[in-house]
Amino acid sequence: MKKMIMIWFLLYGSLFAGTITIAVAANVSYAMDDLKKAFHELQPDIKVQTILGSSGKLTAQIKHGAPYQLFMSANMKYPEALYADKIAVTVPKVYAEGTLALFSVKAHDFSKGLGLLKERSIQKIAVANPKTAPYGIAADEVLKNAGLYNEVKNKFIFGESVSQTVSYAVTAADIGLIAKSSLYSRQMQKYKMNVNWKEIDPALYTPIKQGIVILKNAGENPEVKAFYDFILSADAQKILRQFGYRIP
Questions:
Q1: Is CATH 3.40.190.10 the right assignment for the domain spanning 2-97+209-242?
Q2: Is residue 2 packed enough to be buried (19+ CB in 10 Å), middle (13-18) or exposed (0-12)?
């Protein structure tokens, strides 16, 4: 593990002035380019390095000493745990609420909603792993609350993160329960609502409150604080809305 930590410092360490390193839940990756561009317009001298992954795996890395300075999680559980362990130095705050969508590269009658999952033509369903990805927990809730879980669980293909789940939904599965934010990325915009995808009723799952914290590696770094404040600002929230998030 010590060797791994040293590699992290060499690859991602923010030892150079003007560079900050943040850990970002995979679902936010689709909005991150736009967020970084808007931040750069306000703070042109600050370079933002992003490390993407599932919230669970990023949290494990942080606990083992990865030199990240800020964490944007897909839920509040992981930031709250880091704060309780004094690894995060700010009280976790919600920066957005994520949403789920049912998606397929093939056209379907999405008026059937989740009932599509029972059809014979649907042999593989991409879902995020609930052990590592909060969106996987939400997908579990959806299927259980809809009374479909036991009927379709044998069709699951698990992605370790939301971005991997999207990849599986595009290439290896017939349909997937994915982050709605992914559908606003440049690669996914060609897919049409009610033809290729439909938002899943948010009443079927606990709101996905996504949390942000500054980590102890940041110390009193004003550049990290500047990015933290930006993510909670009206400018960033406008961008997040454009990517399908709800703002609390």
A1: yes
A2: exposed
CATH 3.40.190.10 residue spans of the chain:
2-97+209-242, 98-204
CB 92 within 8 A of CB 213: yes
Strand order from edge to edge, sheet including 125-128: 156-159, 125-128, 175-179, 100-103, 197-199
Whole-number Cα distances in Å, 154 to 59, 173, 214: 29, 13, 40
Predicted TM-score (pTM) of this structure = 0.85
Pick the CATH number of 98-204 from 3.40.50.300, 3.40.190.10, 3.30.430.20, 3.40.50.720: 3.40.190.10
3-state helix, strand, coil in the chain (%, to 5): 45, 20, 35
pLDDT of residue 45: 94
Q: What is the DSSP string of 56-113?
A: HHHHHHHHTT---SEEE-SSSHHHHHHHHTTSB-S--EEEEEE-EEEE-SS---GGGG
Q: What is the pLDDT of residues 226-235, one digit of tens each?
A: 999 999 999 9
User: How far does Cα 48 stand from its chain's mean position?
Assistant: 18
